[in-house]
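re: ur question from earlier - yeah i can do the single chain one, its not a big deal. heres the input i used so u can compare w yours
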Amino acid sequence: MKFSVFQVSRKGGRLKNEDRMGYCYTRESGLFVLADGMGGHPEGEVAAQLALQTIAALYQREARPIVKDVKAFLTASVMAAHQQIMRYAGNKGMLDTPRTTVVAAVLQGTTATWIHCGDSRLYVVRDGELLTRTRDHSHAERPRANAGPEIVNRNLLLTCLGSPTTPLFDVSAPLQLQRGDRIMLCSDGLWGVLDEGLIVRTLSSGKPVSDAAPDLAEMALRNGGTHSDNVTLIALEWEMPDAAGQGRGVSTDSISDGVFASTIQAGMPSDSELDDLDEDAIERSIAEINEAIKRSAARKG
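and the output i got, formated as C-alpha cells:
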C-alpha cells in the first residue's frame, strides 16, 4: 500500500484550537481521522482528542494487519468515542458535555470507506473533478421537509459526538480507488470560507499534497480574516504499490506484521485530566454498544 499524505492545523482568530487530526497505518491498512471540538460547550479539544484516541485504539486492536469488517469497525469506534466522551463528562460531574464532530476513513486493499458525524467533511477528487463529498448533518444541508424560506444557520448541527442524544452518522459504501485519487478530510474552518470549485482545483492541481494542503489552509485563514475559524485538514493521494515515483509518500510494504504506526497520540491537552485509554475502557464501551444494539433489535422484533 502506498500513499502520499500531509496534515496541517492552523489556529485562526479563536482563543484556542480545538481541532484534532491524525492517521495510523499497518502494512495493509490505513486510518485517517479528523475531529472538530465544538465551541459553545466546554473542553471541545478534549472531546476531539478522545474521539481520535478511541478510534485509533480500536483500530490498533482490529487491524491485524487489516480490518476484517470496515463498516462495523467504523460504526463501533465512533459510538465508542461518543461513550468515552460521555463517561469523561460524567466522571467530572459536568453540567454540559464536551462535544465534537468527526470524520474518519479506512483505506485498505484498493478501497476507501468513511464515516462522518456533524459537519467535518471528506472530499474525493479524481482527474480534476469532485467525485463525491460527505453531506453535513446540519439544517443547511438537510433541511426539514416543510422548512420555510428563511435563511438557515449553517453552524446549527443536527448531531455530534458528546450530545446527550445518540449521535447520527453516515457510513459510505466502499469506493474503488484509482492511482492519483486525492482524498481530503477537513474541518468547517476550511470549507466554510472557500468556494467548492476552488477547493477542488487546489486539491487536484499538479502540486503534491504536501504543497496543496498548506495552500488551502493559508487561503482559508486569509479569507476568514481576523475572526477566522481554526483550519485543519488531512490530504492524501492514493498511489498503487508499483506506480512510478516510488520515492514519494508512505510505502507500507516493508512494515512487518504486528507493526502499527500512528501520529494520533501527539497533541494531548496538557491542562486536562484525560488519561490514556486502556483496554478495559475500550471493552466496556464496546460491551455497552453491543447491549444497546441487542435491546434495539429486541424491540423491533
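Residues 10 and 299 are 46 Å apart (CA to CA). not sure if urs matches, ping me
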